[in-house]
């Protein structure tokens, strides 16, 4: 893990992206590691690659720092097995402290409004009641992660990533999309979220624009769509 975020995120030790890359480079340079070549090939063949590489980011709100400096990239996953290894080593959302975020985004996209892939987009936002943190939050987030890495959404190229925000007033799960102007894609993705997460009829999700979220002082923004 990078920086001081490790104790807040993981339940046991885990490698950073840099450590994993360093090991890969060492293997490439030496031509072998402790495993035989055939064992390595067999291990690679047994893994199930994802269509995209996904990066997990952690954010802890700290008003003494710039927002970007609060973001820490934990690691990346490129196959199903590595995803489950990661998930089993990080804390559940219900165990995290208020004011923190988990972000799972496609490699090359930062979980920031200012990122070139996000700045013209928006997000589908699901807001939970306080009591749902210990009843629904963890299940909904895992289902969302599986939707992302499984590429189950219509218009998958419009998907940038998802954010889970732990907040005292109410936790949130958001799906970020690339273009707020693509109405057909965004509405389809909204209905995908409802169906895949099995949301009850009384639990609405709203689509808001990043630029209006960024300029809102009190977090109150008008929804463009609601499903």
From TrEMBL:
Q: Which GO terms describe its molecular function?
A: RNA 7-methylguanosine cap binding; translation initiation factor activity
Keywords attached to this Swiss-Prot or TrEMBL record, sorted alphabetically, are: Initiation factor, Protein biosynthesis, RNA-binding, Translation regulation
Show the segment(s) annotated as Disordered.
Answer: 1-38
The residue ranges flagged as biased composition, category Basic and acidic residues, are 17-26
Q: Which spans does this entry mark as compositional bias, Low complexity?
A: 1-15
Is Protein biosynthesis one of the keywords UniProt gives this record? yes
Please report a single Pfam family linked to this protein: IF4E
What GO biological process terms are annotated to this protein in UniProt? Answer: regulation of translation
- Gene Ontology CC terms, in alphabetical order: eukaryotic translation initiation factor 4F complex
Describe the family membership recorded for this protein in Swiss-Prot or TrEMBL: Belongs to the eukaryotic initiation factor 4E family.
Q: What is this protein called?
A: eIF-4F 25 kDa subunit
């Amino acid at each position: 893990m990078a920086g001081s975020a490790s104790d807040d995120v993981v339940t046991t030790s885990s490698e950073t992206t840099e450590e994993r890359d360093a090991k890969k480079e060492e293997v490439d340079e030496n031509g072998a590691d402790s495993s035989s070549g055939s064992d390595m090939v067999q291990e690679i063949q047994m893994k199930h690659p994802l269509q995209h590489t996904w990066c997990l980011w952690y954010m802890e709100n700290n008003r003494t720092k710039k927002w970007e400096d609060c973001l820490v990239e934990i690691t990346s996953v490129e196959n199903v097995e590595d995803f489950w290894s990661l998930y089993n080593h990080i804390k559940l959302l219900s165990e995290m402290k208020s004011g923190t975020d988990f972000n799972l985004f496609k490699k090359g996209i930062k979980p920031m409004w200012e990122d070139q892939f996000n700045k013209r987009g928006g997000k589908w936002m699901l807001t939970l009641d306080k009591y749902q943190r210990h009843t629904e939050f963890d299940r909904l987030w895992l289902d969302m992660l599986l939707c992302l890495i499984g590429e189950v959404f219509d218009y998958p190229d419009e998907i940038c990533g998802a954010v889970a925000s732990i907040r005292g007033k109410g936790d949130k799960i958001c799906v970020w999309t690339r273009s707020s102007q693509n109405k057909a894609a965004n509405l389809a993705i909204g209905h995908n979220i409802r169906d895949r997460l099995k949301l009850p009829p009384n639990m609405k999700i709203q689509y808001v624009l990043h630029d209006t979220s960024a300029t809102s002082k009190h977090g109150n923004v008008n929804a463009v769509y609601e499903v």
